[in-house]
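cron nightly-structures :: item 1 of 1
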Amino acid sequence: MGKKKKDAESASLFDEEKPAAQPTEAATAEPKVEELPPLPPGVPGLPADLDPSWRAALDPETRKPYWAELAKFVTEERKAHTVFPPAPDVFNAFRYTPLDKVKVLLLGQDPYHGPGQAHGLCFSVRPGVTPPPSLRNIYKELESDLGIAPVKHGYLVTWAQRGVLMLNACMTVRKGAANSHAGKGWEKFTDAAIRAVNDQKRTVVFLLWGAYAGKKLPLIDQKRHVVVKSAHPSPFSEHLFFGTKPFSKINTALEAAGEEPIDWHLPEKVEE
């Protein structure tokens, strides 16, 4: 299943070669974004093609001092190094899963740092790219848990379109250098996104794999939402990950809350 095409301007955040996006009529539809002061000169806002539900929740973050510092940092990094994912794909997690459609929040740490892998969804890689070890372990657990055989690709957009927000806490990374963009401001921005999901009135399942994701527990109201927590699917902790049955636990929680469960099947053939 291909992703919707984005015009060149709407996906240009932190890409100095293109002008910052201008709001579109769709992007300013309900729910209305609160009246905000203008952005400082040269500081990009959110891409104009994000769903209004996300813009209403996250636009205020772009007026905070850390955002301008983050934008400057990523811009300078792109000048001096290769940065993943490409600028048009940084906000794909929000594009594919509007805030008011989130059923599950899956949190990763930072994007894959190899060529051609990262495209804005945690654990997912582009069509034609060999699934990395952690994703192969996710597929193994999916088969063990629900009997769904692994597909040959690692393109998880279908899950995102079905309500799984696949969010990396740090949304960019330098080529070949894991966690190289940590501590620069992304975590404040994605914490705001987690809080926005937590503020939803309906039950959401938060899927937290590994110690890093587990640190976000204080942002989640566990009286209203469900947390499914386990070891990370990395080969280093796979012996603790296998057998945790996260996919059936998620669907059981959704059904108990009166929500439709997630169809975890992926198409055999995909394209962007």
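cron nightly-structures :: done
The CA atoms of residues 107 and 150 lie 21 Å apart.
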